[in-house]
Design goal:
The complex is a heterotrimer of chains A (about 325), B (about 290) and C (about 250). Chain A has a two-stranded antiparallel ribbon. The relative contact order of chain A is 0.16. Chain A is globular, with a radius of gyration of 23 Å. Chain A is about 80% helix and about 0% strand. Chain A has 14 helices and two strands. In chain A, a hairpin with a 2-residue loop joins strand 1 and strand 2. Chain B starts with a helix and ends in a 14-residue tail after the last helix. In chain B, a hairpin with a 2-residue loop joins strand 1 and strand 2. Chain B is globular and about 60 Å long. Chain B has a domain of about 200 residues. In chain B, helix 2 packs antiparallel against helix 3, helix 2 packs across helix 8 and helix 5 crosses helix 6. Chain B is built from eleven helices and two strands, in the order ααααββααααααα. With about 290 residues, chain B is an all-alpha fold. In chain C, a hairpin with a 2-residue loop joins strand 1 and strand 2. Chain C is α/β, with parallel strands linked by helices and about 250 residues long. Helices cover about 35% and strands about 25% of the residues of chain C. The chains are: A mainly alpha (about 325), B mainly alpha (about 290), C alpha/beta (about 250). Chains in contact: A-B, A-C. The interface between A and B is large, with 38 and 39 residues.
Chain lengths: ~325, ~290, ~250
């Protein structure tokens, strides 16, 4: 039964990938744009899931890193820096700043950490808004060009969509590797019981800092893709509300589940678009849906699937037991 | 000097509002570990209730205010607890955080969609006159805010510290299980904190709306201010939220005037970060024993 | 030759309360030292001072002649000092096998080499061996959170031995464990002591367990050492009897 469920899961993932690849055949350019947005936001959500879901460190700063990544790419572009280089720079810069932001996490936890990171987000927003000489202030930076990768132009929506998917796949592979390595085990230990982890030789300080730095770096990479996707960036896109949306993606998808952020990003990016038929009411409907979802499956959508799988398994097990005892009951009759 | 005095008093008036909002925030945090990300929207909404009561119900302003208070207590106090906090509490802090975020979106969009996206004028409790005090120009609005906030907070303090009911509520906030053993009706006390929060946000709403006008985006800065005030003052004490609110209002006003208007908003955050890292129990809070 | 563990004049005060008062003792290779004492006698505080969870107010702790006073628990662990906890401390969301791998992985290579190395850090075989040694082969793939209390307690002990430690500190290993499981645990500990030359310090309430396991016993009362010696000597010491039975 367990293996069957595993196969079903793999089949679902394969199906989803096939659907993503085939999407340009059926979708209009706007649909492709929304899906590209999903892919880009999913990168940031995967990063936050690493920090929060696996290592247990809450961060409301992820939007800042998306912003830092986006501005890095946008600011380097006029100097003729190739996209690949700017992309890496965005990741490295976010990694370094994320590392520093991890230090408060060594001192404070839970809601205090949430508020330190929340303050960080607001401070970064103020810098983006006020330092006009660098960031263009409230006017932002426009005309960001989409890159040409090894002669392949991503200027049109469909190529850029595939480019975004590719980057998401790359990031996913890296995170999958990281979580499968002993580091993944150490992160889980850090989340579940830091004191015991420490007594087993796990340097919880260093892993905490790495968890922050890696998660932030993915935020930066997401931003580096966001800038050429929307081609115009301004400070309000990277404020607290984006941080809260990213948190929502991770929790709604299922915090600590590998596929959680992908599903969560789907809910946060695509659901509002689907609800657009409701006109002005669509955000109200969206908020209500999230409220309901949290009430009925607080461990997220994938948590709900996990519960269902458990339920099926126990049902199957008790059915087996029943048929077994039924056979035992029949024995004396038949003999 | 007179300019300083002027800034100080208007800072205190803003701070008094922050204090009221932060006290409510702290109370429900203490009794039910709810970090209410919708607290700012809770302050934005009651003014709409009052306006709706005047416009649709044709009530005079004072009666509409009473209706606003009552609806706020019921919707933002009782219903918020029963429909959102209670079912989610056992699942930990984060799902509840997400729910309050969704709730803030819901409230904001509802106000915009069902009432108006335009800023609405709101009647004032006193005529707006500028008084001259030692050369400083001080509006009657500021004085009213300070006065009402002083009475509200003072009354709440009396309730919490001088009555049996208040002490039972504090016991509930500090340690639920001990309170239960001591025979405190814990459930009712928790409900009481939500009711008080509903009342406080409605008072804050009626106080600020003549100054800032009624707009669906009003909650955004207020919610943040309430968090900061609560933490700066001390998360585990009502007194802390009051001190935190006042300090925040003054710091905000003075730093904007004397240091940088562009980075208005940054200084309270620096204060927040400094307090969390250096004195996490807050300016007037008690240090909580950490369990290893 | 230096002692495996040497505690020199360690004291720990909390405000005005002296929890551990000038305690000194040594543990040599292959010994099983039991530390007993009534509730509140400072056993756990002493343990936490030795293990770096608390910083002693004064005094020194040496492992193999090297001062480790105030060292972080993770660094101490990598020097070969491991421990179990009084309350259950396994990782419920990891399998039994992963709990054991986790307990030794930080001893393999560097952080960087672990990132690029094998997912199990080459420890699966060791983990399987430890699992079968503790008689839990049928549970290897189960989530630790789903085990019974006694099984988790065994796992907790097994984790302490995964990295081949030089010194193991056991904090009430017998607490809450049923008799069968207790005998099982005691046998395992004795075997590990004789075959792997592991040195133990055990804090325990269960006198029977201590007396039959330990080679030497130290009695703590009100933060001071009251008596020390072979189990039989300690058992008949009138001061100990008085401390236990009260006045």
């Amino acid at each position: 039964m367990k293996t069957l469920l595993k196969y079903a899961q793999v089949a679902l993932v394969v199906l989803a990938i096939a659907a993503l690849l085939a999407a340009p055949l059926v979708l209009k350019p706007y649909g492709i744009f929304v899906l590209s947005q999903w892919a880009v936001m999913a990168i940031a959500a995967v990063g936050l899931n690493l920090t929060l879901g696996y290592a247990g460190q809450i961060s409301l700063a992820q939007a800042s890193f998306v912003g830092i990544g986006a501005y890095t790419v946008a600011l380097l572009q006029p100097f003729g820096v190739p996209f690949a280089l700017a992309f890496v720079a965005a990741g490295l810069l976010s990694f370094a700043i994320g590392w520093v932001l991890g230090y408060p996490a060594l001192r404070v936890q839970h809601h205090y950490l949430a508020f330190v990171t929340l303050a960080f987000t607001t401070l970064v927003f103020l810098v983006m808004r006020n330092e006009e000489w660098l960031t263009g202030g409230i006017y932002g930076i426009s005309n960001i060009k989409r890159p040409i990768i090894l002669g392949w132009s991503t200027v049109k929506p469909v190529p850029f969509y595939y480019f975004a998917l590719g980057m998401l796949a790359l990031v996913t592979a890296i995170v999958w590797w990281l979580l499968r390595s002993p580091w993944g085990r150490a992160f889980t230990a850090l989340r579940e019981n830091p004191i015991r982890a420490l007594s087993l030789g796990i340097d919880t300080r260093r892993y905490t800092l790495f968890a922050f730095a890696f998660g932030s770096a993915l935020g930066g990479l997401s931003g580096a893709m966001h800038a050429p996707l929307v081609q115009f960036i301004e400070p309000t896109s990277f404020g607290l509300s984006l941080s809260l949306t990213l948190l929502l993606m991770v929790i709604v998808g299922g915090s600590g589940y590998f596929l959680g952020p992908f599903v969560g990003a789907l809910v946060a990016v695509i659901m509002p678009e689907w609800l657009r038929f409701a006109d002005g009411l669509y955000l109200i409907a969206y908020a209500l849906l999230v409220l309901l979802l949290m009430t009925f499956c607080p461990s997220g959508i994938l948590g709900l699937f996990g519960r269902l799988a458990n339920l099926i398994e126990t049902r199957a097990a008790s059915a087996r037991r029943q048929s077994l005892s039924a056979k035992l009951d029949q024995k004396p009759v038949s003999s | 000097m007179s300019a300083f005095l002027q800034l100080l008093i208007s800072g205190l008036a803003t701070g008094a509002i922050y204090a009221i909002v932060a006290v409510g925030f702290t109370l429900i945090w203490q009794t039910s570990q709810t970090i209410n990300f919708a607290q700012g929207e809770f302050v934005m909404i009651p003014a709409f209730f009052v306006l709706a009561a005047m416009k649709l119900g044709g009530l005079p302003f004072w009666a509409a205010c009473l209706v606003g208070l009552a609806v706020s207590v019921f919707v933002l106090g009782v219903m918020f607890k029963q429909a959102i906090v209670d079912p989610m509490l056992k699942h930990g802090v984060l799902p509840l955080v997400i729910s309050t975020i969704a709730l803030s979106l819901l409230l904001k969009e509802s106000a915009k969609e069902f009432y108006s996206s335009q800023a609405q004028p709101f009647p004032s409790l006193v005529p707006s006159v500028d008084l001259n005090l030692f050369g400083a120009v001080i509006s009657t609005q500021s004085l009213l805010v300070l006065g009402v906030a002083f009475v509200t907070v003072g009354g709440l303090n009396l309730l919490l510290n001088r009555t049996r009911f208040g002490r039972a509520m504090q016991a509930t906030a500090q340690n639920r299980s001990v309170a239960r053993i001591l025979g405190v009706p814990v459930e009712r006390m928790v409900l009481a904190t939500f009711v008080i929060n509903g009342l406080l946000v409605a008072i804050a709403s009626i106080l600020i709306s003549p100054i800032y006008l009624v707009k669906f985006t009003n909650g955004e800065t207020l919610g943040l201010a309430a968090f900061i005030a609560a933490i700066v003052g001390g998360f585990n004490q009502v007194r802390g939220a009051i001190v935190g609110g006042l300090v925040l209002g003054v710091v905000d006003n003075l730093s904007a005037a004397y240091i940088s208007a562009q980075y208005r908003g940054a200084f309270p955050l620096f204060l927040l970060i400094a307090v969390i890292l250096l004195k996490p129990e807050g300016l007037v809070g008690r240090r909580e024993e950490r369990t290893v | 030759m230096s002692h495996v563990l040497e505690v020199r004049n360690v004291a720990k005060r909390f405000g005005g309360v002296t929890a551990v008062d000038d305690v000194s003792f040594c543990v040599d290779e292959g010994e099983i030292l039991g530390i007993i004492g009534p509730n509140g006698s400072g056993k756990s505080t002493l343990f936490n001072c030795v293990l770096g969870q608390l910083r002693p107010t004064s005094g020194e702790v040496l492992v193999d002649g090297r001062s480790v006073t105030g060292m972080r628990p993770c660094d101490l662990n990598r020097l070969g000092v491991s421990r179990t906890f009084q309350l259950l401390q396994v990782f419920p969301q990891l399998s039994v096998r992963d709990n054991l791998i986790l307990a030794a992985q930080e001893h393999q290579g560097t952080m960087l080499s672990r990132l690029f190395g094998r997912p199990d850090a080459g420890l699966t075989a060791d983990a399987e061996q430890m699992i079968s040694f503790f008689g839990m082969s049928h549970l290897a793939g189960e989530m630790a959170g789903g085990l019974s209390y006694g099984q988790q307690k065994l796992l907790d002990a097994a984790m302490a031995f995964m990295a081949g430690p030089r010194l193991v500190l056991l904090d009430e290993p017998a607490g809450g464990v049923n008799l069968t499981m207790l005998g099982h645990l005691k046998e395992r500990l004795k075997t590990l002591n004789s075959e792997r030359k592991a040195t133990f310090v055990v804090i325990e309430h269960n006198m029977e367990f201590v007396m039959s396991l330990c080679t030497r016993v130290l009695v703590l009362a009100e933060g001071k050492i009251l008596a020390e010696g072979k189990p039989a000597e300690v058992r008949s010491n009138p001061k100990v009897i008085e401390a236990y039975l009260g006045h």
